[in-house]
Amino acid sequence: MVTYQITEEPMWDQEMGRYIAFGVCAYLEDETGRREVAHISDVFFCAETAARFVDKCNRLELDVDQLYDAVEDILLDDDEREV
Asked: What domain range includes position 26?
């Protein structure tokens, strides 16, 4: 079974300087234990938004192969709301 968690990451950017970003990490849990199978850094600026996304991934039992598409979709949706 794959489970998703938020990662909190201190970041630095030439234009923004230091900031905290939130990423998504996927873990595969089986009889041998738990291991990281995917990690996408610097996705969200807001911890609450990241938590809602991760909760939805876990609730829907998102396949890890779909994680990058799901992140892309949420980023595109956010861009459309800002326009």
From this structure: 2-82
